[in-house]
Amino acid sequence: QRPVRRLLSYPGTVAADLRREEQPAGSAETGSEDRTPKKRFCEVQSERREQAQRTVLIHCPSKISEKRFLKYLSQHGPINNHFFYESFGLYAVVEFHQKESVASLQSVTRTPSLGAEAAIPFRSRYFSLKLKNPSNQTSGQPSVQCSNQSSPASRKLFDLLCCAENVDDQLNTLTKELQLTEENTRLRHLTCSLIEDVAAAYFPDCAIRPFGSSVNSFGKLGCDLDMFLDLDDIGKFSAHKASGNFLMEFQVKNVPSERIASQKILSVIGECLDHFGPGCVGVQKILNARCPLVRFSHQASGFQCDLTTNNRIALRSSELLYIYGALDSRVRALVFTVRCWARAHSLTSSIPGAWITNFSLTIMVIFFLQRRSPPILPTLDYLKTLADAEDKCIIEGHNCTFVRDLNKIKPSGNTETLELLLKEFFEYFGNFAFNKNSINIRQGKEQNKPESSPLHIQNPFETSLNISKNVSQSQLQKFVDLARESAWILHQEDKGRPSPSGNQPWGLAALLLPSVANGVSLAKKKKPASERIKNLLESIKSGPENSTNTNGKR
Ligand code: CTP
Ligand code: MG
User: Fold this and answer.
1) What is the mean pLDDT of residues 325-330?
2) Dihedral pair phi/psi, residue 382, rounded to 5°
């Protein structure tokens, strides 16, 4: 029996975001759950937004003296923080101490003259730094140190896993390697802030807020950047303050529905990003989707961005996941591992289709942790009972109330190891009655399925929606088969494994391989080509039509 080992300190960004104040060195890993008061989601988000507004993005010459660069920019005011990164060129992210410094820098910046082409003179916070005299400045200069913005190569990750002490250590290593870094988090908030400047041309008091895995603490380096245009705060305060017998309203254009309003707004902002947005390329307007969106690449940051409007419920679900991720250090380790396992076996994909999504996998892990005895995570209904008057939150008629202050939630008394939890996760879902039951984190219990989709996971706030409606029967079956085989492999290892050695894949490393040592094939036994093509076609077709004989149990 291995000792119960839990990583009690949060490495990297989540640590920075969660901590209310810096702890003295060495006190983070104490052997008991970290009791430092933790920051609320909205505090973290507003600090990050304010920080991004004082930050600029600069495309730099490939060889540059860091010292001279900083000296040059300091003319506009003190610099709090900066870093360099590479993405088709060298870029710098520079955070000034004051917002005024950005205006000062903009005031001395010129619009380039491009010879035969013409420039659209949009004055953003994305600049290009040129050397006045390239030849004498670059010679012999050391290049700057760059921060890495992409996840480690699978080979490196694999080697790290093989060198780990035990399975728990493997899960924590994987999380540490894949999670968003402090720099990547800053770059995500900066990108939203730059897009906000474009949207503010139409709606001066708007906010572009990131949501999804960029902020819910489950983001992996390289994940997309989900953002939404928040117009809710516009004009709210002034209406309350006005005294007297009158109430003033703006004359506005009316459209038949919220959806049409979103489509019109996104259509114009999409055009604007396409025509004027520096660094915004491949702008696609996907306005007929259930949730209309504009998709584009932000070239300088390398992020694939999805912009929507009015997505307050999704922001609330990001906050809920953030809370779950912060309650117990095992949650993130398990979510990162299950997501990585699913990706390694092509259960998830970056292309939309009949596949399980990372969001669904995260909810499945949370549900599983609610089902442990004693539970590792509380139910959403319980978090609602802890809410006070100021936590009350109704969005579009949906009750999205839950406690915002993480410090009010008692830590779990459960001390199971990550190794055990991973094995049990695979066993639990390898034998789950997907044909009858729905996964419901609000109640923390299986519910009867209200409709016949192969996989039913209730949306925590819009409870009539199934977040995995797109998943086909064959994709669900693939998940179930792989879960069973992974549980089996972990059991086999328990029985006969010699002590972990660096040259044989073991534990988690063995689970990520398409085929494993001991002659066990983790992938399904090869099927005839006709059947494989049939499955492929089925997984391309999205929708619940092929759902009648769903049965997760054999
Ligand atoms: N969302 C939702 N219902 C869905 C899909 C998504 O409510 N059926 C919301 C969730 O809040 C989710 C966010 O939209 O976190 C972003 O969706 P997506 O990008 O698919 O998931 P992420 O959690 O961001 O994960 P990934 O790293 O794969 O992008
Ligand atoms: Mg996302």
Assistant:
1) 96
2) -65, -40
Q: Which CA distances in Å does 288 have to 218, 284, 292, 309?
A: 29, 12, 6, 14
If you take atom 17 of ligand 1, which residue's CA is the nearest one? 212
Report the C-alpha gap between 78 and 97 in whole angstroms: 6
Q: How far is the C-alpha of 461 from the C-alpha of 452, rounded, in Å?
A: 20
Q: Is 318 in the pocket of ligand 1 (CB under 6 A)?
A: yes
- In terms of Cα–Cα distance, which of 303, 508, 500, 506 is closest to 422? 508
- What is the pairing mode between strands 90-96 and 126-128? unpaired
Reduce the DSSP state of residue 447 to 3 states and report it: strand
How much is the average pLDDT of 445-474? 96
> To test the ligand 1 pocket, which listed residue (214, 311, 359, 365) has its Cβ within 8 A of the most ligand atoms?
359
Check residues 68 and 5 and name the one with the higher pLDDT. Answer: 68
Rounded Cα distance between 357 and 354, Å, is: 9
One-letter amino acid identity for 364? M
- Measured CA to CA in angstroms, residue 194 lies from 56, 202, 449 at distances of 9, 14, 43
Cβ-based neighbour number of residue 401 at 10 Å: 20
Lowest mean pLDDT among 27-36, 402-411, 452-461, 498-507: 27-36
Cα–Cα distance, 507 to 499 (Å, whole number): 11
**224 close to ligand 1 (CB < 6 Angstrom):** yes
Q: What CA–CA distance (Å, rounded) separates 57 from 414? A: 45
What is the tens place of the pLDDT at every residue in 82-138? 999 999 899 999 999 999 999 999 999 999 887 888 888 899 999 999 988 776 555
C-alpha distances out from residue 445 to 322, 379, 381, Å: 21, 9, 11
Q: How confident is the prediction for the chain on average, in pLDDT?
A: 87
Dmax over Cα atoms in the chain, in whole Å?
A: 82
Report the distance separating Cα 487 and Cα 363, nearest Å: 20
Q: Which residue has the higher pLDDT, 112 or 319?
A: 319
Instruction: Give the position, in ligand 1's atom list, of the atom nearest the Cα of 468.
Output: 8
Q: List helix spans (H) across 345-417.
A: 358-370, 380-385
Q: Judge whether residue 198 has pLDDT over 50.
A: yes
